Amino acid sequence: MTTETISKVPAHVSLIMDGNGRWAKERGKERVQGHFEGVESVHACVQAAAKAGVKYLSIFAFSEENWNRPEAEVVSLMGLMVKAMAAYIDGMCEEGVRFVVLGNRARLGDELNAIIDSCMERTAHNDRLTFIIFISYSGKWDILQAAKKMALEMEENPERKQEILDMGVSGFDKYLVTAGIPDPDLIVRTSGENRLSNYLLWQGAYSEFLFVDTLWPDFREKEFNDALAEYAKRDRRYGKVK
Known about the structure:
By secondary structure, the protein is of the alpha/beta class. It has one domain: Undecaprenyl pyrophosphate synthetase (3-Layer(aba) Sandwich), CATH 3.40.1180. It contains eight helices and six strands, in the order βααβαβαβαααββα. It has helices spanning 20-26, 31-52, 71-94, 110-123, 139-156, 161-165, 169-173, 221-233, and strands spanning 12-16, 56-63, 97-102, 129-137, 186-189, 208-211. Helix 4 links the parallel strand 3 (97-102) and strand 4. The protein starts with 11 loop residues before the first strand and ends in a 9-residue tail after the last helix.
């Protein structure tokens, strides 16, 4: 399926990358090799999204729960993220890709945070595609930190208490880490698992979901375009009757 035949392109596609470990195990390799191969899939999907006219592409790279993995694997993943950002930042600048990292960055190391800040600053004015990586993120954490922000704002500005209490759904959006970013139109999870795993619980309320059997390291341009084609078939009603 080529992008030319896709009639309805989503503004925001989000990818839950799953299956790196299984991909490596099937080939008799260490789990970290699956993560390395998975980086190539990320690069392929960024290019495919930009080519298709998607404006926002986000990936779930590392959850709050992933901190419970073996320390050696966590260290390898963090090191891989550092290397990947350094390797691809020039290309993102050339291709007009804006780079954003969202999540509980207080838990990340100084080296990774410094590279993240540098990459975000260098690409801040790019507008062809916004590429978002969720690191140390969970949906429940996001909603909780948003509620805490709102409570603190009410405490610091008692004169705004009633205004804040009267706030609607769109008003609450600004407290989430995704403030200013449209909710995903399409969320794709690879490797045959059919769950959200605590990801974008608020933002995914009206997203279309697509669960595919492909392991993440094998999810490249063709698979991305197939997901766009499937999205184009969906009839989105948002609770309304058509």
